[in-house]
Amino acid sequence: MLMSEIRCPACDTPAVKVHTTYTVQAGETRRLYYCGDCHCYFSETHGTALAGLRTPLSRISQILDALNDGLGVNATCRTFQVSKNTLRSWQARLSAVKDALVLYALCHQFLHQVIEGDELYTKVNANQPPADSTGWTIVLMDRASPFVWDLRCGERDRALFEQALQTLAQVVQQTNDLALMTDGERRYGLVLFEICQTVIRTGRRGRPRHTLPLGVQVRVKNKGSQAHCRGRKRPKYQAPQPEHPNTTAPIADHDIHANHVEAFNAALRRRMACYRRKTNTYAKKTNGSNVG
Predict the structure, then answer these.
(1) Are 195 and 89 in a shared domain?
(2) 252 within domain boundaries
(3) pLDDT tier at 278 (50, 70, 90 boundaries)?
(4) ∠191-197-202 over CA atoms, to 5°?
């Protein structure tokens, strides 16, 4: 299936036809097109992130998945026998595809989406308390892909959560079933509830009930021991916001976690010293700590 119409890169005409096919190193067959107006020959990967790549895409995906799952840069280069410059060039090539993938994803209907949310922290400019730092990074990752829907850096306040969850609100409009998992942080569900809440009108007297949209669920895993806490103890697994009564997809307790995005955060800590714990290193600039 073609994502867009094939046009000639020289004269921008759609009057092109397949001239021949060729086989790349991985054994994949690609087309070579011919333009009858300007007599230009070009490959189907011309002008894309795959143009000029000799390494098979399956191998690149395998190496980048290992890097995102927590394997360090040096360990990745030793294991797969690639250089650091090659690894950086792949990341630079494929990072530009994210905007197109987000746009394509928001134009299609999903059957099921499970998104995990978590935060990273680093010091910026000086050794200051975490509450005053602008080095908080929010990551929203799809559990199945794992596709990073949003990665945003700033001060850990309401505005940062609102900016990150605006993208997730667009996903809610396109999906029939979405679940957001987070470990302990309740502002994910609170801000998402305020952005895309719906009103249930039953015809009865009184104020109508406000809930999450149909098919949207938010689950929080409350970490830490609460055995010595006074007062009412929070349950270990809970839904912080009211859900639509017709949302019937149950979520098992063992599925309420953010393990995949935590593995991604572990990879960031290995690649960037400013994110590592129990160190005095800090970021020089806010833009440098916002990797995407």
Answers:
(1) no
(2) yes
(3) low
(4) 150
Contact 275, 283 (CB under 8 A): no
121 and 162 share one domain: yes
Answer for the pair 197, 211: CB distance below 8 angstroms, yes or no.
Answer: yes
**Which residues on neighbouring strands pair with residue 184, listed in sequence order?**
none
Residue 251 has pLDDT above 70, yes or no: yes
In tens, the pLDDT along 1-47 reads 445 677 787 787 777 888 888 777 666 777 888 888 888 888 877 77
Q: Report if residue 126 sits inside a domain.
A: yes
Q: How far is CA 226 from CA 41, 168, 220, 232, in A?
A: 68, 31, 15, 10
- CB count in 10 Å sphere of residue 36: 11
Tell me the pTM.
Answer: 0.63
Q: What is the pLDDT of residues 162-200, one digit of tens each?
A: 888 888 888 887 776 788 999 888 888 888 888 888 887
In terms of residues, how long is the chain?
A: 292
Q: Under DSSP, is residue 244 helix (H, G, I), strand (E, B) or coil?
A: coil
Q: State whether 202 and 261 are in the same domain.
A: yes
The pair of three-digit structure tokens given for residue 5, joined into one six-digit string: 């119409």
Same domain, 213 and 266: yes
- Host domain of residue 69: 55-96
Quick one: tokens of 274? 């400013």
Return the bridge partners of 141, or none.
116, 148
CB neighbourhood size of 276 (10 A): 13
Count of the separate structural domains present in the chain: 3
